[in-house]
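User: Okay, second chain of the day. Same drill as before: sequence in, structure tokens out.
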Amino acid sequence: MPSVLFVCTGNQYRSPIAAAAFLRQLNRQGKASRWIVRSAGTWTTPNQPPLPDAVRVAQDLGLNIRDRTTRKVTAGELSKCDLILVMEHKHKEALSYEFPTASKKIHLLSEVVNHLDYDIWDPADPSVSAKGVAIELCDSIRRGFQEICELAESNSSERSNILELSRV
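Assistant: Same drill. Structure tokens below.
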């Protein structure tokens, strides 16, 4: 079963919205029951609700993140995931350094979707449009859905093969 983990800093805005947008695309394709989709933060306090603005903006975009709670990135979480999509270079750098065995699975969302190397800004910055970030995430997930699926499925097959070989 392929799995995708979306990662941002606090896991209260970008990554839950990205995960919900990806899950919506999976539902539209009738594939949701065959996937694991999660979100987590690099620097967060576990079990916190999403930001009220995130809940409102997500709802405006047809997504429900109200019942999600924050999760911190852990080695165990990363080992279970086939694809880790991060919002910023600093996330990719920090996770690759702290969890080197997962580094091949960690990608900037912008790299996978747009083949461009840029950060998706944190709406905690007052100069950033929170709604603009949410719209960008939903649009990126929609346009890059097939590529995200293919990369996760490829990594999932590779992980399954390695597990099979280790049992022999």
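Residues 130-167 form the longest helix (38 residues).

User: Thanks, on to the next one.
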